[in-house]
Specification:
This protein is α+β, with helices and mostly antiparallel strands and 65 residues long. It has three helices and two strands, in the order H-E-H-H-E.
């Protein structure tokens, strides 16, 4: 999780100007992550900021587009 948030933020900064008319949706699929890492302050702030635009699952994520 410590690496996921900076990667998502960097991707957002990189493409935000080019994709200004689009909505950004973030997905994190993690494995072998401790509960403590999921509840750290940096990740919680990112999750609060993006709300339903961020989905975080462990091991498997399936969604219909």
């Amino acid at each position: 999780m410590d690496r996921a948030v900076p990667q998502l933020e960097a991707g957002l900064r990189l493409f935000q100007a080019e994709l200004s008319g689009y909505e950004f949706l973030f997905r994190i699929v993690s494995s072998k992550v401790r509960t403590h890492d999921i509840q750290n302050n940096k990740f919680r702030k990112f999750k609060d900021k993006w709300g339903s635009g961020l989905i975080c699952k462990t091991d498997y994520l399936e969604e219909t587009l």
